[in-house]
Specification:
Blueprint (H helix, E strand, L loop, with lengths): L3 H21 L18 H8 L7 H4 L17 H9 L7 H9 L4 E3 L9 E4 L4 E3 L11 E4 L4 E4 L10 E2 H7 L7 E11 L2 E12 L4 E12 L6 E4 L6 E9 L2 E11 L1 E7 L10 E7 L4 H14 L4 E5 L2 E6 L5
Antiparallel strand pairs: 1-2, 2-3, 3-4, 4-5, 5-13, 6-10, 7-8, 8-9, 9-10, 9-13, 11-12, 11-14, 14-16, 15-16
Length: 323
């Protein structure tokens, strides 16, 4: 029978064992440290910028002084200062807002050496939360810009594995109103392939975010199933995108080299897709034939979308109405 005294004794014993185990880890000698694993692609980006080795446990990495470029591995939150700031006369910030200010006051990283894809950093200079291998935070395919308060897709997103088909559109319109998007699809033949370009604009995350997307996909002409593969990274090209609604500018992203450009901004007020204006430009210098084919197909299939061509650059404006 479990008594209060026995339960308390068990908890204390467990805590002592845990403390001893954790405190023993930093005392291990170099010979006792785990052997280095095979290099991870682009891990040097973390190592160079944040001073992380490719081995050791999370406890070792949490020791101060092991990272020459950072004061700490974890966000430096001072609960005493948080309490005082919250109680200070004239403070109008919420406790959550003050906590966010402390967390993002300096660069930090959350790193598990055995699971590098779960690693992410907050870079104070770029005001950006990002993951490794251009796979996004937690391998989800998105990074977050604290500077502009928006999510943006990475080139090496997990969605590359699954391509695109109508099920994605069905899912986005049948997920408890989580997404409310208008889309347009442009399909044409080029270089022995069927190219599909899809445009989206609307609201995301249960109408808490406003965003837009433009993605390039393809399928062999012999494939009967209407499923398109994503463009290979070798065929990625510079794209820029701007989204507005009346006098509101949600974002204006300068050119980045990718196959799928997507951004959503957490902001108020959100605006339905019919009031949004999506502006997109692609630089087809490395593949001018693709740019010309896309320009002609968009012009023929969607006359309500304004499209212009200037040399190897193609620009479109999918205008919205007045709110």
């Amino acid at each position: 029978m479990f008594t209060k005294k026995r339960i308390l004794s068990t908890l204390i014993s467990f805590a002592l064992v845990l403390i001893l185990a954790v405190s023993a880890i930093p005392m291990a000698t170099a010979a006792e440290q785990p052997t280095a694993r095979a290099p991870i692609e682009n891990w040097d980006d973390f190592s160079r910028d944040f001073g992380f080795p490719q081995r050791d446990s999370v406890f070792y990495w949490n020791r101060r002084g092991t990272r020459p470029h950072m004061p700490s591995n974890w966000p430096d939150v001072n609960l005493w200062r948080l309490r005082n700031d919250w109680r200070a006369p004239g403070n109008e910030r919420s406790l959550g807002g003050l906590l966010v200010d402390q967390i993002f006051a300096d660069s930090f990283a959350i790193v598990l050496s055995n699971h590098p894809r779960l690693a992410f950093v907050y870079d104070i200079e770029r005001r950006e939360v990002r993951g490794i291998n251009d796979e996004g935070v937690f391998h989800l395919g998105f990074n977050f810009s604290a500077e502009h308060n928006f999510l943006f897709a990475t080139r090496n997103s997990w969605k590359r594995l699954f391509g695109y088909n109508d099920f994605y559109d069905w899912l986005s319109h049948n997920t408890f109103d989580a997404f409310y998007l208008d889309s347009r699809r442009v399909i044409f033949e080029y270089d022995g392939l069927e190219i599909m370009v899809q445009l989206w604009k609307g609201t995301y995350a249960f109408h808490m975010a406003t965003g837009s997307e433009v993605g390039f996909y393809y399928r062999p002409l012999t494939r009967r199933l209407e499923h398109w593969d994503v463009f290979p990274l070798s065929r990625a090209f510079p794209m820029s995108m701007r989204l507005t609604a009346g006098d509101i500018e949600y974002f204006d992203l300068p050119p980045i080299e990718t196959w799928w450009i997507v951004m959503s901004q957490l902001s108020e007020p959100t605006m339905p897709a019919r009031y949004q204006t999506l502006e997109w430009t692609g630089d087809f210098t490395n593949e001018p034939g693709l740019g010309e084919a896309f320009y002609l197909a968009l012009q023929a299939q969607h006359p309500d979308i304004s499209v212009t061509r200037n040399g190897n650059s193609v620009s479109l404006v999918w205008a919205g109405g007045n709110a």
